[in-house]
Amino acid sequence: MQSVQSGNIQQMDTLYRRYKQVVFGYLYGIHRDYDLAQDLLQTVFFRVMKYSHTFQLDSNFRHWLFRIAKNVSKDHFLKNRQASMDAIGDWSEKLVAQQQTERELLQRESKQLLQQALKHLDHPQREVLVLSKLKGMKYADIADILQCSEGAVKLKVFRALKALRKVYVTLENR
User: Fold this and answer.
1) pTM greater than 0.70
2) How far apart (Å, rounded) are the C-alpha atoms in residues 39 and 49?
3) What's 64-112 look like in SS3?
4) How far apart are the first and last CA of the chain?
5) pLDDT at position 85, please?
6) The pLDDT of residue 155
7) Which of 69, 81, 91, 155 would you label with 22, given CA atoms 20 to 30 Å apart?
8) How many Cβ atoms are within 10 Å of 34's Cβ, its own excluded?
9) What are the percentages of helix, strand and coil residues in the chain, rounded to 5?
10) Long-range contacts of 63-70 (CB under 8 A, 24+ apart)
């Protein structure tokens, strides 16, 4: 390193050949991207040359080199963090949209299946389910319409739901 500091740039080649594998291994281990590690390796040795005047000759060159590599890696991360966050944001928005589309499709399919199942019920069962579940009427009001007791309406709704469930499952398993 002393020769490089003195202006002998050819000695950089010796330093590069000696340390490129360990620095590359360090960078690749962090980023897990071969091409990026190669690019960052070049940046590390560019900075070694650029800041060679800051190296203290009584210091450990390897430690100094790895501090530069750590800083290059950190700089890359900070510079690309916003781009990564934007990409994550785009990706998550697409995922949410896809999940909503799938959920809507499932709901639509379920609704169609429920309508088919309702068609398989007899008229009184369909009537009591439409009034209670689809129209949201109270059992007392349905009892007035059907001219029966509230307890009878509850029993009819229970039996109609049981029949509907059985038809729905049968249709779903086809």
Assistant:
1) no
2) 16
3) HHHHHHHHHHHHHHHHHHHHHHHHHHHHHHHHHHHHHHHHHHHHHHHHH
4) 77
5) 58
6) 95
7) 81
8) 11
9) 85, 0, 15
10) 65/19, 65/23, 66/23, 66/26, 68/44, 69/23, 69/26, 69/27, 69/40, 69/44
